[in-house]
Design goal:
The complex is a heterodimer of chains A (about 210) and B (about 425). Chain A is an alpha/beta fold and about 210 residues long. Chain A has helices at about 10-20, 35-45, 60-75, 90-95, 115-125, 130-140, 155-165, 170-175, 180-195, 200-210; strands spanning about 1-5, 25-30, 50, 80-85, 100-105, 130. Chain A contains ten helices and six strands. Chain A has a six-stranded parallel beta sheet, sandwiched between helices. Chain A is globular and about 45 Å long. In chain B, about 65% of the residues lie in helices and about 10% in strands. Chain B has helices spanning about 15, 25-30, 30-65, 70-95, 110-120, 125-165, 180-215, 220-270, 275-305, 310-315, 315-325, 340-365, 400-405; strands at about 170-175, 175-180, 330-335, 365-375, 380-385, 410-415, 425-430. Classes of the chains: A alpha/beta (about 210), B alpha+beta (about 425).
Chain lengths: ~210, ~425
Amino acid sequence: MRVVIAEDSVLLREGLARLLDDGGIETVAAVGDGPSLVAAVAEHDPDLAIVDVRMPPTHRDEGLRAALQARALKPALPVLVLSQYVEERYAAELAGGGAAPFGYLLKERVADVTDFLDAVRRVAAGGTVLDPEVIDRLLDRHHTGGPLGSLSGREREVLALMAQGRSNSAIAVRLAVTAGAVEKHVSGIFTKLGLDPAPGDHRRVLAVLAYLGL
Amino acid sequence: MTAGTAPVARTPLRLRVPLGPNGPLGMFVDPMTWRALPYLLGSVFHGLVCFAVLVSVIPFSLTLAVAWVGAPLLALTMVAWRGAAMLERRLVGLAFGVRIPDPYRPGRGGNPLLRCGGALADPATWKDLLYLLLLPLVGLVEFVVSAALWAVALALLVTPPLVLSGVTEVRIVGELTVDGPAGALACVPAGLGVLVAALYATRGMARLHGQLAMALLGPGERIAGSARLRASRARGADAAEAERRRIERDLHDGAQQRLLSVAMDLGRAQVKLDSDPETARRLLAQAHEGAKAAIAELRDLARGIHPAILTDRGLDAALSALAARAPVRVAVSVELAERPPAAVESVAYFVVAEALTNMAKHSGATEASVRVGLRDRRVSVEVRDNGSGGALARPGGGLAGLADRAATVDGVLGVDSPPGGPTVIRAELPCDW
């Protein structure tokens, strides 16, 4: 797998590259600002772009805008955005057209090396990964009233994991239940939320997110 | 398509004349001179009318006040003199170019009785009256001086052509008469001399009258002071906001990144603990270094927000600590009988900190001194170095930020840094704000 990294802190940029290297993922370019990201994507045609939201010159959302720009260049480019704080709005902008796979994680998730590498692989493979924090906020926002209120506690847990882009079998391992039980919960969720079950992890997550109001 | 002439910003004529804007030629071509002259000649008449009305109506209405007839009359007079003062504000603005804002307190409701009471209690009303009573006197002096000087200048200057065209005797002033071509020629330099005197007298009187009008017709210290306070507080609030953003940025981009990198190293070490213990050990050592660097960074950041030693020990100790960290020898002298308010101490500390940082970065100085003293209930802070000078308070720069910081306690900051040095940065911070 070939990855482009855009991150302005040299410390983190190099750290990320080494961490990916540990996981057998090749970093073809590591850059420090938005325009270089767009250029690197055009040059290397990577399998994934890992992008910091805040970058020079103003340190606001240059990274996100550069990522969207790069995606305009390569519409199917999977983008994994890292951020020092999570905002549903940023996730919504990334989900935008809904066509391309994306991930949106808090920066500190890189410390859980195994989980982070897992997320990188899932996004590169066309999945969608959302930070649990974003999902918690969305679930909180929709907590009162509506069909979400009719979900059982276990179903809410499954929904949160689904929104993180996990497959049924991964959810089963995480919750220590059988795959059959997870399937039952998932169909229960789809029924209660009025969503048609769709094949593929990515579609599944998007359906959930669309429902959650992203 | 026709090519239009683009408007070009031109330097005013008076700035381009050979003798400079304040030379006689500059005065002559400056429109302000010619706007002031008609006012100086005419104000005495406005003043006399006002004076006549006021001195006749006020005593009259006061004597009638017992019979309840005088009160409305007095109120009417008051409205009239406030009107006259308003007219005078506009005229003075036109003639001298001084903008005088209306000083009146905001009125209270629609009840005429209440409004009259409010106007009576407003010191601006009485200052208007004083100005109008002074106006004929001031106007008379202005009229006499201007009329005499300008008339003599004009007379002297028109004499030569008159004499040349055949008039045998021209009377300038009183017994001073001119006859013959020799006398006529002598009139030219004399006339020019008086003209110059007239120009400067006109401008001088315009300036004095403008100041008098500003003092009596303008808002007093109370309002002007509070407006200035509001302005500086607002800038101070901006400075505080910018400061908070800087701290947030420093936290995110500095300490948080370092800690993240530490966490990343630890995470990688954890994964490699069994398979590759040597690398894991190296990563642990790296994380250890990173954690220590993050602690140091947080400590520096905290000191940038508010140095602990300043709270604990006051300016002397805090400034000595700053001086000890400077790359060159800095002599510190703090003479304060008691500790100033915390806000003043903090501003004083950051003035010195920024000045020393600037010095280390730009000036190439080899020694510096810091003096803090108390004068007239103001803390004065002076930082002096022997460097190359040329420091400027650019908007958005560190020194401008300090000026804003000083403004939060109603203080001022001065930067004196000629090219070639030395640089002196001085702050005056009132202590009893």
